[in-house]
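User: What would this chain look like folded?
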Amino acid sequence: MTNHHHLHAPLRSAPQSFTAKLLLLLTLLPLSLAALAFILQWRGGIPDPTTRWSPPGSHHLFPGMESSPLSSAAVRSSSSSDCVNLGRSASPSFPYYQNWKFDSGSNLRPKILITTSTSAGLDQMLPWMFYHKVIGVSTFYLFVEGKAASPEVSKVLESIPGVKVIYRTKELEEQQARSRIWNETWLSSFFYKPCNYELFVKQSLNMEMAIVMARDAGMDWIIHLDTDELLHPAGTKEYSLRQLLQDVPGNVDMVIFPNYESSVERDDIKEPFTEVSMFKRNYDHVPKDTYFGMYKESTRGNPNYFLTYGNGKSAARIQEHLRPNGAHRWHNYMKTPNEIKLEEAAVLHYTYARFSDLTSRRDRCGCKPTKEDVKRCFMLEFDRAAFIIASTATEEEMLKWYHEHIVWDDKDIKVKLLRKGILTRIYAPLAIIQGLRESGVFSSVIASAPTTLSKEKFLATIDSSNSSRATASVSHPSRTIGRNRENKATARKTLDVEVAEFQEFAVPPLAPPVIDFNQLTIEV
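Assistant: Here's the prediction, encoded as structure tokens.
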């Protein structure tokens, strides 16, 4: 027994020795790595993250980093002459870019242009533009009138790199009077009608000019977007519109972004871009059985699934013979464009997100608030109903109607539709715009804008503002141009039959598929 005991003793001590060595190694390894990191940091081998991402010469810090010794040293070492106060002195710089100008002259491809026709103010324009700069848009063509054309707004817009402001002057109207569009049929059904139809024609004429300028500027893609719409490049690794369009096959001419519609949850929203996170998904992104099965709960007695349009917006590759096809689509004089529809990305439409949107739409149109007359002015049923309410009801009645038709007050229905995928939460645009605001980007742009415009630009803003006021009270410039212009286009040869084959009528704002509950049929 004694010999047997001594025989097994070494066998028991061997595993104990191995365990002790392993524990010693696991203890020494992290200590060695920590010592190496300390030596590299002390010798300057690893830069401080706050100095890596802050603009050159800037002493702005990330939130919560004010107490960092390295950050404090960096602040003390920078001279006051190297720093330019672009806005709020205590604000951190936006961490993802080297400066607030978002260099539009970079060689990154593809080069993306957004064009719009707007009368919005800076409170809406700046978040809209800089959000799209963050996701990869390099250039903006702004056809401005009204408030957007005023000197105090336009001087700020013109100071932003990559932004071109086009005023609605007499020269612009005369140039658009010579457009070939007036002698073609695809847009003719919208001519000489008020309100939304007038705007539709004006947008198409502006888009036509934007194509020419975009081609001269070397742009790759063009998108027409309203200032109450944000592109949502879901499905990309870096939430990048540039990456999304870069991945589009070379034989694709047009990319369609299905639209999601804002679904507000209260009536006191002031800044929709940072206060709205719930959206109704497009028909194309919802299973058909779910869409039609939940149709009644989704519409809540409104004329359609969406309050306004449901056929999305589109991006077109810049190429020869490109033309607009209404505000929602593009076309080509020489061929039928090859198009694809995106399965994840969308355009977020913040429609009627503020209670004041009811009266603002009413004030832009001089139609009578009758069921017959509003058909002349508005293309979509909900716009017609909203105009009548805003024109005939008291503010208390309007607020009640707003809650019944727009605000999602019923929590049970809201939760049900969220679970079914009809409604969805989207936070990325909200977070980006809020980050831009808190970083002082918008205040920086305003503070750095020139105090005055040149005489030429100032006169252009006055001319544009006067033109806008005259338009609101009398008639739309497109109507005046269409009827009184010299028909110089008649001297041009008639389009060849080959070109005429590719004529397609303009795509208006269209409602999603509707269920007729009386006849129990589905209209698609």
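The first strand starts at residue 112 and ends at 118. If you want, I can go into more detail on any region.
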